[in-house]
Amino acid sequence: MDIQHLVDRMEDLIDEGRHLFGTKYTMLDEERALEIIDQMRISIPEEIERAARTIQQRDRVLAEANEEAARIVQQARQHSEDLIDDQEMVKQAKVRAEFVIEQAKIEARKITQEADEYVLVQLSELEQRFAYTLDEIRNGIQLMQYEEPATVDANPDMQGVQAPQDDGNAEPISFDRPAQAPMGSRL
Asked: Would residue 9 count as lying in a domain?
């Protein structure tokens, strides 16, 4: 039985009792009072046990809540440390990337400079070869222009060969402008 209900019954019993005039005493039904007290003795340990179980349950719930809170705080700390580590790794990766990009730019400038120097050397050599060839051609033309025409021997082996004749329509060779090489030929 509920202890509160028993207390209410005891209070009702006292209210129903006869008051002794001129005193603070009240006469009660002893049998009913003892019955209520016996029920209280039986109910009080149950109530105490129930209260103790409630306190234990409360303590267990609080302990679980504290453990969960500690676990959440630990996870938050770990997560923040991971984020800090990730940010540090990102910073390091950015620094590394900038270094690699700068090295690549330096290497590209070096390769470009070396390629330019190689092309310049090759073009200079080609210019010298063309200048040498052009000088030989001019010397050959001058020799041909200032030499006396050689007399043609009547050689029976050369009877069918005729010297090319100038028909007047051929364009004279000019060495003041670059000559165009025939298609497909290599210089």
From this structure: yes
